[in-house]
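WARN  no MSA supplied for this record, continuing single-sequence
INFO  ligand: thiamine diphosphate
INFO  echoing inputs
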Amino acid sequence: MESIDLHIKRELLEYLVLIRRFEERVKVLYHQGAIMGAIHLYIGQEAVAVGVCRSLRDEDTVFSTHRGHGHAIAKSGEVERIMAELMGRDEGLSRGHGGSMHLFEPPKGLMGGNGIVGGGIPLSLGGAFTAQYQGSDRISVGFFSDGAVNQGTFAECLNLAALWKLPVLLVCENNQYAATTPVERSTAVRDVVGRARAFGVRAEKVDGNDVEAVFQAATAAVAALRQSQGPRLLECETYRVEPHCGIIPDERTPGERELWNPRDPVSLFVGRLVGEGAISASDLEALERRVRERLDRAVEFGARSPWPDPQVDPHRTWVLQ
Ligand SMILES: Cc1ncc(C[n+]2csc(CCOP(=O)(O)OP(=O)(O)O)c2C)c(N)n1
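INFO  complex generated
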């Protein structure tokens, strides 16, 4: 496995911290009533979004899930407009009409979240088919979690992607739960990689809390996809730290979360970079300050943005080149 350049490692860290602090801020704003509707926090899973999305180009398409803030930030970098969207404002990515689960920015390849579990998988095949049909080397990514692998659409999509050799990277974020149901109570065969291989899709399991491992696996998969070598699947083993959704009480057994603390993706990467001498304590302080100031600006931007006019059609039109 090739080592990762220092400037890329720093970029990965910047996004990890940005997403973590963004989600912490969203949690506060939600409880203050500044964000309404359902929110699904991504804390604990940041290394997956960052490792995958930072291996992509702008024009590659990403189809997200109901838990999509991390994907949206890592793919588009549009923190201010994502925050405004969560706050339901007109300058949000979807002009305040979509909210947390509908973050779209096609010019940056961000093709939205999805309230339908597993719904993004067939859409990601659509993105891949478009690229293949146009003769482009663009690739498409479909994120989903362990709950989606028991939806019929997952099996259908594995088959079609393999049959048509679509340039799609399917990314399973195995975060141990589907809403409040632990994976062992919902899934007879938990080997997602094995399921993919049964359909002829090349698949690999990685530590989803290790941003470098995810980035390296995604980079290799993306390179193969650009050479039309057929679909790939990455199963990223991770852990969702927060309850399923802002309005559902926690479902964890006492002490369970703490067991995952040593695997926290942000601390893990910070510890490794400090150990390598790649960053110093003052670099970290500066990074935290930068992120805090950026989030302050994002919240101000959202709060200043007008409420959407319900009479105005929120749709924007994009044509993928
Ligand atoms: C087709 C469908 N069935 C059920 C639901 C209700 N629902 C919303 S989130 C969720 C759990 C999804 O679990 P998973 O895919 O593992 O994602 P996680 O929330 O763990 O990130 C369910 C069942 C839904 N939105 N769509």
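The chain has a mean pLDDT of 95.
INFO  checksum written, moving to next record
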